[in-house]
Amino acid sequence: MGQAERQAIARGRRLHAAAQAVRGDHAAAVEAVRAALKPMHDAEVGRALDAIPVARLQDVTEGRLRLGNVEKSGLDTVGRVLEAGPYRLRQIPGVGQRTVDQMLAAARRLAEAVHETAAVHLDVDRPEPRSTALVIALHLLVEAGPDARRAVDRAAEVSDGLGPLLAEAGPAAGRIRMLLSGRHKRARALAAVAGIRALADEADRAGLPELLAQTSVNLLRGPASDVAAWVDFESRSTEYYGLLAEISGRQPDTAAAEGFLPDDVTERVRTQQLDDTHLRVSLRGYQAFGARFVLAQRKVILGDEMGLGKTVEAIAVLAHLAAEGQSHFMVVCPASVLVNWTREIEARSALRVMVLHGPDRHDAFADWKGRGGVAVTTFEALRGFPEPGGGEVGLLVVDEAHSVKNPKAKRSQAVALWAGHCERALFMTGTPMENRVAEFRNLVGMLDPDIADALEEGDALAGSVAFRAAVAPVYLRRNQVDVLTELPSLQRTDEWEELSASDEQAYREAVRAGNFMAMRRAAYLRPAESAKLDRLREIVREAGENGQKTVVFSYFKDVLGVVRDALAAGAAEGAPTFGPLTGGVPPARRQAVVDDFAGVAGPAVLLAQIQAAGVGLNLQAASVVVLCEPQIKPTIEHQAVARAHRMGQVRPVRVYRLLATGGVDERLVTMLEAKTRLFDAYARRSAMAEATPDAVDVSDVELARRIVEEEQARLGVAE
User: Fold this and answer.
1) Can you give the pLDDT at residue 462?
2) 174 lies in which domain range?
3) What is the pLDDT of residue 688?
4) Beta carbons of 320 and 276 less than 8 angstroms apart
5) Which residues belong to any copy of the Helicase ATP-binding domain (predicted)?
């Protein structure tokens, strides 16, 4: 009835109008994306249906259809059958109405399935009007950033809460209306005014009016230019595709995105809240689930396949715990990715980050102890720091955690000691185990000794269901193929080369000496007549002509030196060569080299030792990968390829593995096929194949000895 009530109602109306405006502006931006997406999706569905032979209709109808005359009439695909329609189908000799009905019903069922699964890919190298329109529409929402998502969520809460209160408080907006209202209606109006005032006060404390105003400004900006939108898409395609998946409803299969966890664990994770106040990036659905899993289960291994954004999931957990009041966090990682971790934390969160590395690391440690933040250090440096007190560290993050699977190693013991003193620990690895359950058990033992003690070799043999049930409380893994529908294609090619006479001579000398490592790199020892080197130059030249960047991996530094000299001699004219990145290159310098490589406008070549650059670094700038020789462990190759073929890659990736016929390469490939199958079945899919781990567990030394002996026998040479 008084001025105070009228002012409260006016505040509520302004806040309600601002919230409604943000919701409307956001809905309009989303609708623009849907409108731009529809013609592209329809075209993709059409292409897919035109690629399905009409014979597939037999599968849908369990062989009841006779389609011979239909195919002869030129309707040889499901797409053409649907386009023809019932009238034309009925004109085909021998095709009755019943057959037409069955045929069209089966074709529509296939079309529905294709419609659900067809994914739109944005080709940055071949923009056309439809894809450009979609990128421009997405650009508006990407530019608005995660603050827009938060603003829309809060706007929905506020407008839904204020709407009924404003209606109920109506009589209090005017003195006469209030006097004419009955006693109960006046009481309800005053209660509603109190509710409005409380909501408005809370909104002011949270800075919501400013957030809503800024979001409206961001959402009402004019469209970006074609060039600006495409350039931005290439630099942060992950965010574009994440929005596209959310808006289109083409989210990955829920069970796959949740790692096929048992229902009880899944339900606990789903109910876990995730505070993104300190986060500067939007999470994909599976990433948010991963972060919630870490929070709900407290001590876990996140085994997502490389390229899915485990680092972002870890940062989301750090941000949540910081919002809850935790102040100290520790990240332990290989030296090669120290710089990457600090950059990611600074770019994707509002958290303070400190590097504890180098000669001043103990001073930095003392500063971190006093001021807090996210400390990033190496396995080696961690051993020199005093163990934390109970509850002092909010979260211990261990990147590339498979590096500490050997309990006898000092680095493993240091990590285990810290993990034991932290209430929360996150181990991250795309390859937590290669051959033996024992290695995985060692990691689990640092997090949950009871589960580790109960985990036996036979659990893996029982299949994925038994294995996942056993490790579900501590282990979550998702695969690219299950959750990244937009990832460009990956094509692998084994390039078999016949050794030249000079190559053969060098190889025989290495075999005679019984030198396994010399055998592996013999094909490069005489560059002037090296068959592998000739093919490598051709691949680099072809990539350069297509404007593509190439990364060349080898286990051997001297092989990379040979490649560098060969490319410098003119094979990569117009394509600058960077590196080689080796274990001797300081971490900061490694990242700088990668940045320089990525910053070249056009073709470039990066040379990298596979152990040094195959882990931790992001090489999405490269769309051609060359492996100079097969690796002893298949996971090393998987890791190297995943540096380029990962979330954020916008181009198809072509992988060439250079192999020499008849020698060590051929024997390695044959012997390791079983290892690769095991890894795919057990580590990647968490389901055992028919073989036991012991049947294919060949140590590096034993494998080398066997190959040397077999090659000496084949060639009739010995020391």
Assistant:
1) 45
2) 1-250
3) 28
4) yes
5) 291-450
